[in-house]
Write the structure tokens for this entry.
Amino acid sequence: MVLTCPLCGRRNARRSCPALGKTICAVCCGTKRLTEIRCPPECPYLAVAREHPPAVALRQRQHDAALVLRWVRDFGERQSQLFLLVGTYVARYQSGDLHTLLDDDVAAAARALAATFETASRGVIYEHRPPSVPAERLLQALKPILEEASRTAASGFDRDAATVLRQIEQAAGEMHAAEPGNRRALVDLFGRIFSGESDGRAGKAAEAPRLIVS
């Protein structure tokens, strides 16, 4: 009996997926690996892909790394570390509800947080709010991460955080323009670069130093 892939509902399911506990098709295995599917390290298909990545995957890694390097090229060390911190968190973020995190949510949360830090840098405490519930949830999840980083930071943290968050907001707009049909283009890129689940070849080109914000 030939099974149909439960993910796409079209192709024959021939690969046993240890992450899902289901048999899926080769196309879904290849395209959703480490993005929509949290593949365990012992997955044989993941191991083969890491040993022999297709040319298209190599080009994607090079393209991703080039984008991230361009976004952080004018950053100082602390700003680069904050970009890594926020990007990694977004890559691993789980909302806890049925909503899938979209680039619009990331942009709105980054915009509101940036405005809050910009206001604080002028000596005024005022928390700006994003317009949507998913963006608000992401903002509330990011706040303690950034507050913890700020505790050991030297002066100017508010300005650095605002600069980084504005860049992330701008990156979301850039990714939307480049891939208008993909509402998770930036989230997916962060997943490929910062999730810690890739083989690291492209990630090494874009990785920042260990987070030290003092």
Notes: The chain has two domains: 15-51, 59-206. The beta strands are 15-17, 22-24.
